[in-house]
Amino acid sequence: MSEKTYDVVVVGGGVAGLAAAVSAAEAGARVAVLERSTEAETGGNTRYTEAFLRMRSIEEVAEGFEEILVDDFMGHPDPSVVNDAALPAGRQGPLWRATHTVNPDYVATLAEQAPQALQWMAEHGVRFDFVPTPFLTQSTTRMAPVGGGLAIIETMGRAARDLGVEFHFRTTARRLTHSPSGIDGVLAHTPDGPVTFTGAVVLACGGYQGNFELMARYHGPNAMTSRPVAQGGNYNKGEGLEMALALGAATAGNFSLFHAEPVDPRSGEPEAAIFCFPYGVLVNAEGQRFVDEARGTVDAWYERTTRAIQAQTDGIAWVVLDQHGLAVPNIMAGVRTDIAPVTAPTIGALATRLGLPVAALEATVAAYNAACPGPEGFDPLVVDGLATTGLVPPKSNWSRPLTQGPFTAYPIMAANVFTFGGLKTTPEAEVVDRDGNPMTGLYAAGEMTGLYYSNYTGSTSVLRGATFGRIAGRNAARVRAGV
User: What ranges do the domains of the chain cover?
Assistant: First the structure.
């Protein structure tokens, strides 16, 4: 078996991996990036995302950044203040807290270091600005790289090559190698056969949404009613997670959930999202409403609505709109599919074209229409409180009768953007073992690290990948150099 020697071996070529590679190379390390895709497809999910960032400027995270992240965590985030008596059975004691709760210093580090990471990327040529989003109503401020995630891949990839980083494509990491002193490399399958790449290791190879066996293991039957949100997710097979778990790594995040996005199942486009449902009604295969379509701003609630869709028969629903809904200013910004909607002159005819029970859909729309208030106060750009009366489930905002044909419908299914469960890391991006101790020589960053428990904190995924990828690469270079 052949061997290649480096100081740092980065597994994965998305935003986290490239940030790690560049920062390690800047620290003087000899760096390899292992990427299972071809060079033309490199970048994982980052390549296909618009890469929105929860920032108010390049120098400052959005208002309430730390608070909203902590709110999305399960249980008590600070092990030093947890009262065991308040925790459920099986979630008590210092060892459980050390390995199953989120270190508040991690969140603080993200808030503190994210602006520095973006400014550092800007120095390498990535441009950031405020760009249009698909959300008509928003709960926070967002920036994005000009050119989306692809601009990150191209710009940071070029920076890595300029620093002497060597890329190995069509190369899949299979097993971590180790010695008494810690992790010291990766056994990988390459087009030329197995190769051992020695060096401190940074795992940045995404989640497991491209592995249906792992999806079924962690998510049960519903795993078959979702798909990766973009082509890059198909490369995320979970080997990084499995390799680390085999050596006793601890986990973080909720393995029963993934970041869900509502997409048109007919479309092959990346992120073919449908965000217009607050201005219509969502119905399932039985022709019935099943969720409050408008609990608040769409950016804060679409994930939970998408999970409700996935729980329906065959994991699918349809958003039904009339001409009043379609007339909402800029509503098509929230429709990212490249496939035309289904239209019909009447609700009954629409049901027929959708293959839904005609009488059920007609009754559903009639009941909804009767529960809607008058139109006074309707404002599509803010949470307007225009709610239904006596309807179950209710609709909390933007409730207007569906009366003006022709009527339109888009199908929606749950797309898997990334999986919530992953490796537990310190604020220094060190992978932690099940005893709560850092694993020497092993770092991780990006979507393969566990962070979220109940709801995705919007526009933080690329941000944490860049931030902790940079930290991981720098620290991996130091540990290899014995600093």
Answer: 2-257+420-481, 263-414
